[in-house]
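Submission sheet (multi-component)
Chains listed below:
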Amino acid sequence: MVYGVLMAGGIGSRFWPRSRKVRPKQFLRVLGDHTLLQSTYHRLQNLAPPENIWVVTHERYASLTRDQLPQIAPEQVLGEPISRNTAPCIAYAAMRLHAKDPDAIMIALPSDHLIRDLQAFRNVLRVAVEAARSTDALVTIGIQPTHPETGYGYIQFESMTKRSLKAYPVRAFAEKPDIATAERFLDSGDFLWNSGIFVWKVQTILGQMKIHLPKVYDSFAEIASSLDTEKEAVAVQMAYQKCPRISIDYGVMERANRVLVVPGSFGWSDIGDWRAVYDLSEKDKHGNVLRGTAVVHHSSRCHVEASRLVVCVGMHDAIVVDTPDAILVCHRESVQQVRNVVDYMRAHGLERFV
Amino acid sequence: MVYGVLMAGGIGSRFWPRSRKVRPKQFLRVLGDHTLLQSTYHRLQNLAPPENIWVVTHERYASLTRDQLPQIAPEQVLGEPISRNTAPCIAYAAMRLHAKDPDAIMIALPSDHLIRDLQAFRNVLRVAVEAARSTDALVTIGIQPTHPETGYGYIQFESMTKRSLKAYPVRAFAEKPDIATAERFLDSGDFLWNSGIFVWKVQTILGQMKIHLPKVYDSFAEIASSLDTEKEAVAVQMAYQKCPRISIDYGVMERANRVLVVPGSFGWSDIGDWRAVYDLSEKDKHGNVLRGTAVVHHSSRCHVEASRLVVCVGMHDAIVVDTPDAILVCHRESVQQVRNVVDYMRAHGLERFV
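Outcome: structure written.
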């Protein structure tokens, strides 16, 4: 059986002030009528049935998740007591699925991405599922890059001149590059963006964790007997406290031998910051994106999200995000620094706004 | 006796969104602890006693004025039924003072200026009062220009090489110049900024109005018998309806023969727009002016007036004025256009924000 595991524990601080600790990005309607979490759930239709869709999130978001996804049973939402990056999150989910179905194939994916072409996405995922089923490889989804992006990690793969929709061996993972390196990656033709979407047998990922992340593996192996009992919460709490903070990419993918990648082009964006929302939005003839009650005068390429009236005069490339208690005014070239300001506020007595 | 007449009927739309139709600029604490109206009142201390200070304003601001100036009697606040620029305002006040004291000397001054050196201001005004008393001239106050400002009108006067504090004959009034003309004015040494502050005998100004603005004069001459009676409100209503909309500068000062100017230097600003507030404010080492809860990051020369939390990231020369229902984000070079946006909003269903 195929299972979907939505990773929904992030706090999305680059999306401040709309994304807050009490309601991060994945629970917001950033674009369109659904929250990013809901869109991610719908994306798995025809890949896994609702009873096989699980969500792992911080326990403070468990009830928000259940509210937004009434289609799934409450116990399919797993609450993490502490955020420890993706490796512990995937270990917990894999252990849980393994107890239920030792042959489970797991699609693990972030819950805050945007994907435009659902059909293409599902076709790519089906190829990845088939590759995971027929091999003991860890399978990842790589995005055909469209520009030399410096905000994503890259995957180098064994590319062919004539590509078909199939899984290719991965040569290496690369961290977020500088612009020169990103341009070289793009020109070479054998680099893909790392989407953070993975497919594997739970047996395979648990086996690889046992080798490459024994501390994480052992922490969760201990809780196997408590799963689905009253003791689960306490056992999980202890497991997370023992776990190091580590990503599945760094902890397993970069170290494992048999890693495959399925390249895809399906209008993917990780909507990592306000710039991405602007890029994905329809613009007026002056390049402005205006949501809510907004008036612009002698202004171009501005992005306004108004909760009250917002008026821009003589502004260019500005992002104005207005919420009931806080306003962000940011130049588009500085969107990556929003996260730093959130850190600053947390440390300087403004945590109530975070 | 010397009387002060504060002209307080403007709507200050270049100061939107803090200045609103229900509470324009002169009723706001723009800089410091007092409203501009209150500062103007205090400025006249030692020049005219409280019982001689009158305010002319739109009738919708009469109670606001009485609230802000409890030192003066309610009847010293004259309400205009319609705004008709400064000539009718001065005619009404002059007629009222003349009925009370035919020998009155009147200081007429806008209520939304900033003056730093009160002692110098009062010395200049005393010279102007003395000139008005000893001659039948209209006396105006000219400001020694400090830079080639294009936002003010100018007064050309009979300058001397060695100036003393006294009244000089005015040669001509000049409209707001372009920058080349303003530079020429500055270099010539015989141009002053037109402050809009006037001193005259009420007999003199009424006599000059009778000659140069007979329509305005006649409208108010008719109400003389109704002043200070129950009929005053209706009579004033009729007078204003008959009056053309005209400024005292254009209607009288530019046409009269005997006009004198007293040049002064007392840290004057008409605080005409948000740029002026920035220029007059203390700045941090990055040139930012931050009022309220504001955080700036990689930003310089920004001016933030926050009612909630305002965060600026990567912004330069931006003005952010945050009020409970509306926010302005304006480049400093575009402050003059705020007025146009207010006009636009009034015409496009956003009058509730004006």
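Remark: The CA atoms of residues 31 and 164 of chain A lie 32 Å apart.
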